[in-house]
Amino acid sequence: MISPAVQPSRFRLVPMRPRDPGEDSRAASSLELFFDLVFVIAVSIAATNLHEAVTTGHLGDGLAKYLMVFFAIWWAWMNFTWFATSFDTDDWLYRVLTIVQMGGVLILAAGIGPAFADDNFLIVILGYILMRVVMIAQWLRASRHAGEARRATLIYACGIGIVQVLWVAWMSIDAPMASVVVFLALVLAEVAIPVIAEARGTTPWHPEHITERYGCFTIIVLGESMLASANAVFGAFEDSEDIVSLVSLGVLSLLVTAAMWSIYFWPPHHRAIGGLGGSLTYGYGHYVIFAAAGAFSAGVGIEVDSQLGDSALDPVLATFTVSVPIAVFVLGVWVLAIRPNAGGAVNTIVPVCAVLVLLDPIIPVPTFLTTFFMIIIVITLIVASPKEAALSTGGR
Fold first, then answer.
1. Which domains does the chain have, with CATH numbers?
2. What is the rounded distance in angstroms from the CA atom of residue 312 to the CA atom of residue 186?
3. What was the pLDDT predicted at 239?
4. Handedness of CA 107, 112, 118, 122 (dihedral sign)
């Protein structure tokens, strides 16, 4: 129910004032969850194209394009998420602009195939720019009633606008090396905008709401990985007589996905959302976690193709495409959320086991060692709860 202080105007619009960061029971809205589902479509398409590129022998090129496309997906999602925790009004204009942004996600998703196949990023950039232009409109609207955060909202709007012009210019670069260098420079420009804006007028963020949003997106990405892995294994049944190895891979993939979920949700993530530095580290660090979770499904598909003899990739490298994303995911969660809330045993076993999953190719059963070490991590976390770990490290 809307309080008298924020009654809708004659256009049925609610003044976009900063939300209370201490608001009780702040949870993700149905619109935010709907928003996440559209983004996972883009993640799924990116992972599928990574799978196809690597299977045909283009490991380096496929991985580079995946990371480039994933930046656009992740950065647009992250910007909306942090804006929403500060200024979500949930009136009709806010909903319309959010749905337009979702349309930009679908345009971006439609351009992922041409980006991988022909180095044509035009559609990806157009979809990305549409999402970012919507954010400019949202920030400008927020600036009208932002109070002390007004300067920050205007810096966000201006900074995003300037960089989008530069993205258009980036598409005109023909030299591959120059294109990569400018791309990295524009990525740095994008991630610098929040640093500059928040240093000059902090916008309020709700720790529990933010971490719930990250948790919801993690669940959805892991669910997409499980679906893609299952489809890869089920689809191979018709083409392989070695059903046992495929069933084993499917079971082990399920166990690993469940372990990833368990590991991610063990620590109290909201403790990482405090000052500006910690919040930026948590938010930016999730690029690695989300990208690894998305790449995991591609790795399972690549491993299936390798078992069927349909892959141009060396079998050892095929196994690494499963174990490396898992190791990166676990190490990312450990650095961002587990390490500050755990004692010595957890902070030794988790990173060591994460690295040991890279030994997977030494035995002939794919993902067996990965699954074994992931189970060791989960058992360790069950024995040492976050509360006990916090007490053992002086209350952190």
1. 28-199 (no CATH), 207-392 (1.20.1410)
2. 34
3. 63
4. positive
Are 371 and 344 spatial neighbours (Cβ–Cβ below 8 Å)? no
Other CB atoms within 10 Å distance of the CB of residue 344: 11
The neighbour count for residue 104, using CB atoms within 10 Å, is 21
* Whether the Cβ atoms of residue 389 and residue 266 lie closer than 8 Å to each other: no
For the chain, how big is the Rg over CA atoms in Å?
22
> For the chain, percent helix, then strand, then coil, each to nearest 5?
80, 0, 20
Q: What is the residue-averaged pLDDT of the chain?
A: 88
- What is the per-residue pLDDT across 304-337, written as a single tens digit (0 to 9) for each? 888 777 788 888 888 888 899 999 999 999 999 9
Phi and psi of 57, rounded to 5°?
Answer: 95, 10
Residue type at position 7: Q
Distance CA 151, CA 202 (A): 9
Over the stretch 268-301, which tens digit does the pLDDT of each residue have?
998 888 788 888 999 999 999 999 999 998 888 8
The answer to pTM > 0.85 is yes
Question: Length of the chain, please?
Answer: 396
Output DSSP code: residue 338: I
With CA atoms as reference, report the closest residue to 296 among 50, 30, 70, 91. Answer: 50
Residue tagged 């589902």 (tokens): 37
Give the C-alpha separation, 146 to 365, whole Å: 57
Q: What is the pLDDT of residue 24?
A: 84
* Diameter over CA atoms, the chain: 69
d(CA 34, CA 37) in angstroms, rounded, equals 5
How far apart CA 264 and CA 276 sit, in angstroms, is 22
Residue 133 · residue 163 · CB < 8 Å: no
> How far apart (Å, rounded) are the C-alpha atoms in residues 197 and 214?
22
Rounded Cα gap, residues 120 and 117, in angstroms? 8
How much is the pLDDT for 392?
Answer: 36
Q: 24 burial class (0-12, 13-18, 19+ CB within 10 angstroms)? A: exposed
What is the pLDDT averaged over residues 121-138? Answer: 96
And the tokens for 239? 């083409």
Q: Is residue 72 over pLDDT 80?
A: yes
